[in-house]
Specification:
The chain is of the alpha/beta class. 35% of the residues lie in helices and 14% in strands. The protein is built from 11 helices and 13 strands.
Length: 378
């Protein structure tokens, strides 16, 4: 009898100690100057991609993003690794160095994050540089990583590019890739449409999963990300997916600025609508949304307007993410899989970030990750 009671207590303690795996999206355009060997997209191949929109002769996403972020109104978002000119203006945002990423890994671990979801692009794309550098970091084991497949991107399309799929398979086979249910690698897939799903289902997705199996991995734990839960469920069912989410939640924004608590409440309502489809949901938590830098200095890959959400306090951001973690108390994950995704770690010119900024009075320093650490209690 005593043995059984002890076992029950032990199981309760283990259940209490488990927590959802909390991660944040990375979009890595902060890679500094391009080498001469860089492969840039051909703008004529992609509808909606317009270099004339930027007013500068460039198809370099890093150069365009830096131009947007470096404008003086956005100083409070400049990351801790910003290189400043003598007059205090931003000279460069070069994150793609091992010493910088190792600091970021320590910051993420301090916050209590379990993983980063890297936006995935072809191997030779500049937006893949930072993932490669991350894999060289001496402390990379402090945080796991997974891929967020940005479908239909101008910088490489997973469904159309066999070499990209081969590269993604190699990344997923890395030792600290995020896995659940034993050996199932987590993959987020977003920005889907009917045409892309049809291409995947002509055998390409099946062959990709087969390649993962040949590398000793299980069936991917696929999270389908789409703003319409009904459409997301349809795609998820067709692809054999496991859960629903989105890249971010930015509906209802205004030019006057939606208060952050309203943005958080809208995102939390989206979680419930995903769960109501009968498919498990991965809460997408917002660290803000404000792409006015791109409205002021446009980028080539899409047009942005001046609607935005007002900046939340570090405590408001952390409390919203905490509600994403607590959401699983009412909605237990299937087979024990419970994931939370945050938009974002470093979407700096889109207004979603946790990454430490310049210290006060210019920025918030580490205030956001300090507040998150208190909520996650790791």
């Amino acid at each position: 009898m005593c043995v059984c009671a002890s076992a029950i207590c032990c199981q309760a303690d283990q259940a209490e100690s488990r927590h959802p795996l909390v991660g944040a999206i990375r979009w890595d355009a902060w890679y500094g100057a391009l080498p001469e060997t860089a492969a840039l997209p051909d703008p004529t191949r992609y509808p909606g991609y317009d270099t004339a929109r930027t007013r500068i002769p460039s198809s370099d996403p890093g150069k365009e993003a830096q131009r947007s972020l470096a404008a003086e109104p956005w100083r409070y978002r400049w990351p801790f690794f910003t290189e400043l000119k003598a007059d205090g203006s931003a000279k460069a945002f070069n994150e793609n160095r091992a010493e910088v990423l190792e600091k970021e890994i320590d910051y993420a671990a301090h916050a209590g994050l379990d993983y980063w979801a890297f936006d995935a692009y072809p191997e030779d794309c500049p937006l893949s540089y930072t993932l490669k550098t991350f894999l060289t970091c001496k402390n990379r084991d402090k945080i796991r990583f997974c891929l967020f497949l940005v479908m239909g991107s101008a910088y490489g399309r997973f469904a159309d590019d066999e070499a990209f799929r081969a590269y993604a398979a190699r990344m997923i086979a890395e030792p600290n890739y995020l896995k659940v249910e034993g050996n199932r690698p987590v993959i987020y897939m977003g920005f889907l449409n009917d045409a892309i799903v049809a291409k995947l289902l002509d055998g390409r997705w099946q062959r990709f999963c087969g390649e993962l199996a040949r590398r000793g991995l299980g069936k991917p734990y696929l999270v389908v990300c789409h703003g319409n839960p009904a459409s997301a469920k349809n795609y998820c069912d067709r692809l054999g997916g496991d859960a629903l989410s989105d890249y971010n939640y930015s509906r209802g924004l205004t030019k006057e600025g939606m208060p952050f608590p309203e943005l958080a409440a809208a995102a939390e309502s989206f979680w419930e609508r995903c769960e109501a489809t009968g498919v498990p949901a991965v809460p997408i938590c917002m660290a803000g949304f404000d792409w006015r830098p791109r409205a002021m200095n446009p980028v080539s890959w899409h047009a942005c307007d001046e609607r935005y959400s007002k900046r939340g306090t570090p405590a408001e951001l952390a409390e919203h993410i905490g509600r994403g973690v607590a959401w699983y108390r009412k909605h237990p994950g299937k087979n024990g899989t419970e994931l939370v995704l945050i938009y974002a770690w470093n979407e700096l010119d889109e207004g979603g970030w946790l990454m430490p900024a310049l210290p006060p009075p210019d920025g918030e320093g580490t205030a956001r990750i300090d507040a998150l650490r208190k909520v996650l209690g790791r």
